[in-house]
Amino acid sequence: MRCSLTTFVTLSLAVASLARPALSPYNVHEKRSAIPAGWSHTRRHESAATIPLRIALKQNNLEFIDEYLHDVSHPKSSNYGKHWSAGEIARKFSPSEESISTVRDWLVENGLASERIRVSSTKGWINVDVTVEEAERLMNTEYNVYTHVSGQEHVACEAYHLPEQISAHVDFVLPSVSFDTKLKRRSGSPSEPAHSLGQPGVGITPKTTGTISQLVTELEQCDEYITPICLRALYGLVYEPVSTDINSYGIVEYTPQAYLQSDLQMFAMNYSTDLIGKEPVMVSIDGGYAQTEYQGFDYNGESDLDLQYGMTLVTGKQNVTLYQTGDMVEGASFNNFLDAIDGSYCTFEGGDDYSVDSEYPDPYGGGYEGPEDCGTVTPAYVISTSYGYNEADLTPFYAERQCAEYAKLGLMGVTILYSSGDDGVAGNGDYCLNPDGTQTANGTIFNPTFPGVCPYVTSVGATMVKPGASVLDAQPEMACMEVIYSGGGFSNYFTMPSYQKTAVDYYLENYPPNYPASIWNSTGMSRALPDIAANGANYVVAVDGEFELVYGTSCSSPVSGAIFTMINDARLAAGKSPIGFINPTIYSTDFAGAFNDITEGSNPGCGTEGYNATVGWDPVTGLGTLNFPVLLEKWLALP
Ligand SMILES: *[C@@H]1O[C@H](CO)[C@@H](O)[C@H](O)[C@H]1NC(C)=O
Ligand SMILES: *[C@@H]1O[C@H](CO)[C@@H](O)[C@H](O)[C@H]1NC(C)=O
Ligand SMILES: *[C@@H]1O[C@H](CO)[C@@H](O)[C@H](O)[C@H]1NC(C)=O
Ligand SMILES: *[C@@H]1O[C@H](CO)[C@@H](O)[C@H](O)[C@H]1NC(C)=O
Ligand SMILES: *[C@@H]1O[C@H](CO)[C@@H](O)[C@H](O)[C@H]1NC(C)=O
Predict the structure, then answer these.
(1) Contact 247/524 with Cβ under 8 angstroms?
(2) Is 306 marked active-site?
(3) Residues in the active site (predicted)?
(4) Is residue 82 domain-resident?
(5) Which positions ≥6 away from 18 have C-beta within 8 Å?
(6) pLDDT tens per residue across span 228-278
(7) CATH, residue 346
(8) What is the pTM (predicted TM-score) of this model?
(9) Which residue's C-alpha comes closest to atom 4 of ligand 3?
(10) Measured from the CA of 443, which atom of ligand 3 is nearest?
(11) 495 lines ligand 4 (CB under 6 A)
């Protein structure tokens, strides 16, 4: 039985290969399940029409990226801290000559003259103008014209096929199944700021409970008002930087969110005299600027918070770079920022997806008309971002492509921090997942945050000082349960990185969450977050000329970034490399005791109490908050 089956398979393969010598069988390469809302099928595309076929080639060596990163980031590795240059990264991962020639030969064999075939300068794409008839034959597909309710047309197919041997070298082909046409704006003045498309994490600005008028008597009231001195006391951050001419710290903001210099100066007068007269060093990306036309907590709260605390904690001696990203019209997404700090990312695995990312120069006019920033900006050693998507907002392909970029930045020695979200186990806006993958307020499935789920970023959750506690107590903090809940949980897209296995296994064995497997990823095999935490409640922030109380993991990320920047300062002063991708280090046994373990509180959401903060790592506060003196000593002991 078994024998005859084998014979049958071998025989049919032999026949197939005789009939079509160069080709393996065609497989479905990409397929769409439904036409997106608002679009309808209009007609078959004219067979003589020309379409610019763009074939995105697979990156080389991407399957080894985890290994490469571990090699320079694990404290026990002999190559610890030996980061790569941008050029080394571009060379290592650009598509292989074999991919280029295999795909080119296939096109030629199918009757496309070789002079019609162009390879992009980055070697990421093969471009060829073909007729619809040629494309349909090449990829065993049918091209259709679809019409949007607005009247706009789009050419796409339902599915396409590639020979198995070509498939291995190709990521995807455009145009094909994606409806990545960005819809033209139909009404509204172009000076209205873009809030929807292209802006990551709409609706997750930090929360405020209003303004403060009375004088804050600082250290005694840290359970009600967090000011810089409270954070210094909590995390032992007493340090005067000495490497400021070579060190760097970057904070990313997305226009129309913008800081006000008058707020920074108001904060400086009361809490940070160091910053009097000081500004962040602004780097504009894709037309970004610190706009002042639109003001209010929703426009200034995030940026004011990030800069007032980020700049104060690194002291006035250390410059902080403000990456102001996106114009007022299109806005921007994380990919637009990543394009600017890594030129090879602009076309990596095909480039941006304009259904999520913004396109520059603005194709519709009225916005930033300059060229897209592509490799124009040098990344700082530590980059903090307090914006986020829900993992489920993005396709796995999109999330993986961006996640690989964070790994590359780690290879270059950059520490990437993202806040873990403010809705506990629920997603932005308190949305939870339904079994069909949609997100609604009445969904019941836990909804983790992106990019925190990416194993190559450090995800930062939130704590608070327990009511009535003093920052001088042994452990005054618990998981944040005022106004916001610390984001945390388990990814449905990314598998568990090796660095956190021991810590997360310990949690799952000793404190198994008593929830049905249908509402959380209980496989024990997925990326768990957050990695660390920092205070995220009751921050006194100057916003629009008044001191307000602010809450969120939005506070936790820039504060952690400032602390890591001071550790880099000491390492640079000792002639060592920056700390780079920290996760393999912070979870290692060498770093046991470098965190203040948070063991109280939880992160409710989706109609549940969420997870508990426990002894050791937990999906609410990660490994705990930073203990600066211990971290400094341990990091200085590393090569
Ligand atoms: C800030 O400083 C001013 C001037 O010293 C003082 O009147 C005000 O109460 C302070 N505000 C806070 C919230 O500390
Ligand atoms: C800090 O930034 C200011 C303003 O851009 C610049 O003049 C100064 O040289 C910078 N300092 C260092 C140490 O880089
Ligand atoms: C959940 O909310 C959606 C709208 O967001 C609604 O259509 C649906 O009926 C609700 N489902 C239940 C079970 O209440
Ligand atoms: C749970 O996570 C794993 C690893 O990331 C993934 O393969 C699996 O599909 C996830 N389960 C669900 C139900 O999404
Ligand atoms: C959290 O702790 C409480 C009290 O010990 C317990 O009843 C609950 O089951 C725990 N929740 C989870 C998800 O482990």
Answers:
(1) no
(2) yes
(3) 302 (charge relay system), 306 (charge relay system), 554 (charge relay system)
(4) no
(5) none
(6) 999 999 999 999 999 999 999 999 999 999 999 999 999 999 999 999 999
(7) 3.40.50.200
(8) 0.86
(9) 440
(10) 1
(11) yes
